[in-house]
Amino acid sequence: MSDIPQCPGCASDYAYDDGLQFVCPECGHEWSKAPDAAVEEAATVRDAHGNPLADGDSVTVIKDLRVKGASSVVKVGTKVKNIRLVEGDHDIDCRIDGIGAMKLKSQFVKKA
């Protein structure tokens, strides 16, 4: 019996070992061989300077950010309090005074 797990994407038994990862030929899904602890460590959200962020932290914007669909701009130095970390491309969910609810990328903030 093979020690290669089923594909987490489609549950196929035809996954194969490709060096540092497993690959499913049926759906094209690729996943790491690393243990779950290493995956969780890689999944931590970090600011522009590499500091880990957590729910409830305060951050400062390090670059002028245009707000899509509006003529306003989030200026450099704007302090954002009580952030929430979420999954996805924009990994910070927050509320900015004068603008409202927004999603930010962690690469444009630093921990305050």
UniProtKB/TrEMBL annotation:
NCBIfam families: phnA. InterPro entries: YjdM (IPR004624), YjdM_C (IPR013988), YjdM_N (IPR013987). This is Zinc ribbon domain-containing protein YjdM. Residues 4-32 form the Protein YjdM N-terminal domain. Belongs to the YjdM family. Pfam families: YjdM (PF03831), Zn_Ribbon_YjdM (PF08274). Residues 45-112 form the Protein YjdM C-terminal domain.
